[in-house]
Structure formats: structure tokens, C-alpha cells
Amino acid sequence: MTHADRPPASPSQPPSRTPIQAVVFDVGGVLLDWNPRYLYRTLLADEAEVERFLAQVCTPEWNAAQDAGRTWAEGVAELTARFPEHRDLIHAYDERWAEMVAGTLEETVAVLDTLRAAGVPTYALTNFSAEKWTVACEEWPFLADLDGAVVSGVERVSKPDPAIYRLLLDRHDLAADSTFYTDDVPVNVHAARSVGLRAEVFLDGSTLRGQLKAAGLPV
């Protein structure tokens, strides 16, 4: 799971007549309010220090290696060898990971609950470390109750690689043109569309509900 400044949302796809049979959610930034700043604002003196640390030490690229399958033990060891003066702060990224999640994005979870109550299959497709996915499912059990999840750290392939979208479709026997996907990172949405998914950029739960209604779903 990564967190970075994102480019503007891309235009919506033109409507399709194919009924939507399943809905797939990204997790960080869509279902969970994840941001490493939530933790490091409690550990560092001011916002400038937080931004410097996350830009120079525990960078998005370093975190993405765990999302791609590297273990946290390996990632922490590599980084503490390079920045021994920040040992405790680096370990905190692993050991206090749950404190980076402010909670669920309630509007989106309400949409998810409505879909499930209507019998619509729901899935997750997420860049997430395998170890932290286990933690997340324990902390927020609704994640474990989805009909399925494709997690980059488990599969060792990350969005926006088209292979991870094809894996989702193949594993769960989903037809791309009848599967709706929402993600807050536009490049991931473009990649989903490239393999035929009905994908839209996530802005907030209310917008998502409108997108799903426009696609003919009972939300």
C-alpha cells in the first residue's frame, strides 16, 4: 500500500450496457484511512520533520517493496543499516503500523455493506504487504468477509502491472466488462481499464455510490 500525491482524476468511462456482476475495492484510501503521517506526527517534533523523514528514510518506494513481497524483517534490516540513527523510527513503521490507520472510511464501508446485503459479490484488489494484510483483517474483520482478495504482497506483483488485474479475474472467474473497480490512484484505474474492467477513480463514498447507481447497481 502506498501513499503519495496523486494526479487529477481522469474522466469517467462511457456507460456500458453490460450489467455489473461484481464490485472490486482498493483498500488503502478507499476502505481504510491509511497514512503514515498519522503515526509519525506523534513521534516527530513538527510537520517538516515528518515530511523529511517520509521523503528521505521510510520512503514510499521502500514501503512499496514490502507491498511487492519483501518481508518487513528484511525491509527494516536494510533501512536501519543505512540509517542507524533512525533505528527506532524505522522499527515503528513495522511495529506500530496499525497506528497509521485512522479508521475505516465509513461512507465507503456503508456502500460495501449495501452491496453485500443486495447479494452483489465484493472483492479487494490491493497493494498491501502480506504481513500487514493479516493484521488488517484482524483489526477490521469486514475485510476477511469479502468474497475474495488479491493482495500484492502475497502474489508478488503490484498494481499497476496488468498481471494483477488478470489474476483477479481468472482466480474469481470474473468477466472484465461486468466487473466494477474503484481505486483512488488514477494510474491504477487506467491499468484496470486496459484489461477491460469498468474502473472509476475513487473520490469519496458519496461519489462512489453515484457511480455504482449509474452502472445499475442497487445502492
From TrEMBL:
Keyword Hydrolase set for record: yes
Instruction: Reply yes or no: does the keyword Lipoprotein apply.
Output: no
State any single GO MF term: (S)-2-haloacid dehalogenase activity
Any idea which UniProt keywords this protein has?
Answer: Hydrolase
Recorded E.C. number(s)? Answer: 3.8.1.2
**What domain of life does the native source organism fall in?**
Bacteria
> What protein does this entry describe?
2-haloacid dehalogenase
What species is this protein from? Actinopolymorpha rutila
